[in-house]
Amino acid sequence: xxxxxxxxxxxxxxxxxxxxxxxxxxxxxxxxxxxxxxxxxxxxxxxxxxxxxxxxxxxxxxxxxxxxxxxxxxxxxxxxxxxxxxxxxxxxxxxxxxxxxxxxxxxxxxxxxxxxxxxxxxxxxxxxxxxxxxxxxxxxxxxxxxxxxxxxxxxxxxxxxxxxxxxxxxxxxxxxxxxxxxxxxxxxxxxxxxxxxxxxxxxxxxxxxxxxxxxxxxxxxxxxxxxxxxxxxxxxxxxxxxxxxxxxxxxxxxxxxxxxxxxxxxxxxxxxxxxx
Length: 276
Known about the structure:
By secondary structure, the protein is α+β, with helices and mostly antiparallel strands. The protein folds into 2 domains: 40-113, Antifreeze-like/N-acetylneuraminic acid synthase C-terminal domain (Type Iii Antifreeze Protein Isoform Hplc 12); 116-235, no CATH class. The chain is 18% helix and 26% strand.
């Protein structure tokens, strides 16, 4: 009996040893397997940091190896496919050049290349106050306020209203690149990116009134539409008096009639007569 148990235990141990050795062998085999090489391809990158509006040429570009199984949307594999096109966004050294970062060939270079199709760039004269002490620089977002003479408003006077909100600054003076340290740039002219309709409104405001720029956070894209402010409301002593209504005067109600009791013999009778 003990001999049979010994044989059974030995058989179980042999089977378990076989299974464990097979498992270990498979793991070692997988670990020693050679990882297949990833096919590489050449893509176009910037040879140096490039500014917004830069026209590309072979001296500003170079090729680097890139994993073929990780393609980038809009990437280029030949330098000649990118030449004579301008950047619509700054790029860093060794950053891939993508189709979405380039203007069309017909757009030219410099500021015109940064204007999206259907938009307009309008320049307005500013001073240190209007340009928020020089902190209105390329890439910042602003609201445009205008102050002028109210036409047709009760009492006349000046009025201030916000005509544009969340407008991008394309250029400050002749600079289209933002200062890396965020330093203010006192300039006489600011160029804004607007729609054709807003371009007309901005031109009218800058020529017929006095504009003021309000700097806003670049991630704050909410449209507030604040109500206009009238000079009379801002500097008045209180609410304006209610207007006097002029109409046909109403006639006073006639006095009530008076009553007289008339006695004839044994008869009594009350008669009413109008009051004069």
